[in-house]
Amino acid sequence: MIRVQHLVKRFGEFAAVDNISFDVARGEIFAFLGPNGAGKTTTIKMLTTLLAPTSGTLEIDGLNPTEHQHEVRSRFGIVFQDPSLDQDLTAWENMDLHGVLYHVPRKVRRERSETLLKLFELWERKDSPVKQFSGGMKRRLEIARGFLHTPKILFLDEPTLGLDPQSRNQLWTHVKNLNQTEGVTVFLTTHYMDEAERVAQRIAVIDHGRIVATGSPAELKTQTGKESLEDAFLALTGTAIRDESAGSADQMRQVAKMWRR
Amino acid sequence: MEAIYILWLRELKRYTRSRAQIIASLGQPLLYLLVLGFGLGPVFQKAGGGSYLQFMAPGVIGMAVLFSSVFSGIALLWDRQFGFLKETLVAPVPRIEIMIGRTLGAATTSMIQGLLITAVCLIAGFRPVSLAMVPLGFLFLALIAIVFSALGTTIGSSLQDMQAFPIVMNFLVLPIFFLSGALFPLDHLPRALGIVTSADPLTYGVDGLRAALLGRAHFGSAVDLLVLVVVAVILLCLGAWRFSKIEI
Predict the structure, then answer these.
(1) A188 lies in the same domain as A97
(2) Residues A172, A215 within the same domain
(3) What count of other Cβ atoms lies within 10 Å of the Cβ of residue A240?
(4) Among A200, B51, B102, B235, which residue is least crowded by beta carbons within 10 Å?
């Protein structure tokens, strides 16, 4: 379903993604793990047509995302790591807009929006503008919106960041369910090893733009001789803490926050 | 088509929900209209130009539409910073439709802004000479809005963040306004200024508004119409191309 070969992305001198290759089979749940700044999000951006690779080949369902942007876009859904809601619209309007963009018929759109907003406990606040929501509520809305249409491939970029255990549980149950009943291929990243172990059939560990290990959770543990996936992860990537440089977007967001009281 | 509609509607909703901003953006044109209109009025009258308020009202309407169009086009950058742009860019909708929806939305809101200023002008004492020509004025209002919303989208798609905004403001938007003949007649200008003003698209917008509302024009409404349509097509193509190249 996803095939990546010798993928490289450079920003000037810096190689964010440095010659990685991997495959994700149809119907598989695949976890992409790595410390901050390892290249996870950059890889997802290239897979989802937001960024063109420097070199290497990409395939989504047999199609090249740089050449067949439109066809590729109609095959996946994504929950982004950072916010992507319209703050001035209400929760309902955000859902509805998404449904229109993804060609979900009006009736289905309404029914599903209602079910999902109820599932993620946002139904009572559906007519409030998103800017009045707490961080956790915004996150829940992003996820509910991601499930509005059923794609062939679902990208989840750190979807559980800032979620409470209840919502996390709800999310993963839903993901597993979609995977089993609809055969949706899932490509996820997370910092919580227990989640990866719980849902993922296969894991790739990426560090400094390179893949350092691939395999099932059990294989990674035997490979490193560790008891838990967390220890295996630390053994593979070391214990040093990484810094991510703040992009212009983050800097701007801070300025904007001061501006808007 | 539905995608264009929903994105257009989004711009409209955002506009009507920011009432404080609507009022704030009426301030500047109002200042020009009242201070210059009444302040320079006597001099203009003595020089034989007739009522200055009457003369500059179309210019101030054009200015309001210019500012609000370019700003709503550039608001693309806020969507980029706050992340919503990504949501539309990964959707299975051709980017041209997204660009058109946004640009038409920006154009519509700035037309509303232009109509609000027109109302203020009427209150201040401005009178169009012929009611039959008012629809033509509306057409020019729409063309100005489309031209400069497309320009705003082009700029917004080409920049990374708002840091370049003062440069755009001081070296593009303000010169477009001051060189458009919004504040002075285009007849008997020094040669250099004449050339620069005739290269400014807003000149034709304001001239068209004057043709429709005052029945006096420098180039004539046919020329104005032609120039604006051509510039609109060019800028829409340019904007669509820049928009299709956005990477996040």
Answers:
(1) no
(2) yes
(3) 7
(4) B51
Q: Which is it for the CA torsion B85, B89, B91, B96, positive or negative?
A: positive
A80 domain residue, yes or no? no
Are A58 and A173 in the same domain? yes
Give A33-69 as a 3 state SS string: ECCCCCCHHHHHHHHCCCCCCCEEEEEECCECCCCCH
Check A102 against B92: CB less than 8 A apart: yes
Predicted-complex ipTM score: 0.89
Chain B residue at shortest CA distance from A249: B81
Q: Are A193 and A230 in contact (CB under 8 A)?
A: yes
Across chain A, what does the average pLDDT equal? Answer: 91
Read off the pLDDT of each residue in A61-89 and give the average, rounded to a whole number.
93
Beta bridge partners of A189: A32, A157
B86 interaction partners in chain A (CB closer than 8 Å): 50, 80, 84
pTM comes to 0.90
Work out how many domains chain A is built from and give that number.
2
pLDDT in tens, B109-122: 999 999 999 999 99
List of chain B residues whose C-beta atoms are within 8 Å of the C-beta of residue A86: 10, 14, 79, 84, 87
d(CA A85, CA A74): 20
What is the DSSP secondary structure assignment for residue A241, as one 8-state letter?
Answer: P
Taking the C-alpha atoms of residue A53 and residue A75, their distance in angstroms, rounded to an integer, is 19
User: Hey, is B91 helix, strand or coil?
Assistant: coil
- Quote the pLDDT of residue B199: 96
d(CA A32, CA B105): 39
Cβ distance B50 to B19 under 8 Å?
no
Name the token pair of A173.
């149950």
For residue A130, give its domain range.
87-150
Backbone angles phi and psi of A64, in degrees to 5? -85, 120
